[in-house]
């Protein structure tokens, strides 16, 4: 890859195995130091939780309705909610 980037993952054991660490090191991929399973430090995880609860309340009955509900609910997440999560 030509652009420099930093990879973030949740420190799940499959991401922190010796093999995975060696592969990331061999590929010269910069990995962000991050506490394991810490949604409070990852705003995206909090938004995924909001989306999951909102879609679950709508009870999708098939894949088509699930996709539609996800898109609708994602579009309905208020910018103020995003700002609040980031500020916290």
Structure report:
It contains 4 helices and 2 strands, in the order βαβααα. It is mainly α. It folds into 2 domains: 32 residues, no CATH class; 48 residues, no CATH class. It has a two-stranded parallel ribbon. Helix 2 packs across helix 3. The two termini are 34 Å apart. The relative contact order is 0.12. The mean pLDDT is 84. One of its GO terms (molecular function) is nucleic acid binding.
Essential attributes:
single chain; 88 residues; mainly alpha; 2 domains; two-stranded parallel ribbon; 4 helices; 53% helix; elongated
Put the structure in a nutshell.
The protein contains four helices and two strands; from the N terminus they run βαβααα.
Helix-strand blueprint:
Blueprint: E1 6-7, H1 18-26, E2 30-31, H2 43-58, H3 63-75, H4 79-87
Parallel strand pairs: 1-2
Helix pairs in contact: 2-3
Count of helical regions: 4
Q: Strands of the biggest beta sheet: in what spatial order?
A: 1-2
Overall pLDDT confidence: 84
Helix percentage range? 40-55%
Instruction: Please indicate the count of domains.
Output: 2
- Beta content: under 5%
The largest β sheet comes out as:
2 strands, parallel
Query: Over all CA atoms, what is the radius of gyration?
Result: 17 Å
**Span of the ends, CA to CA:** 34 Å
Give me the secondary-structure category: mainly alpha
Low-confidence stretches: none
How many E-type strands? 2
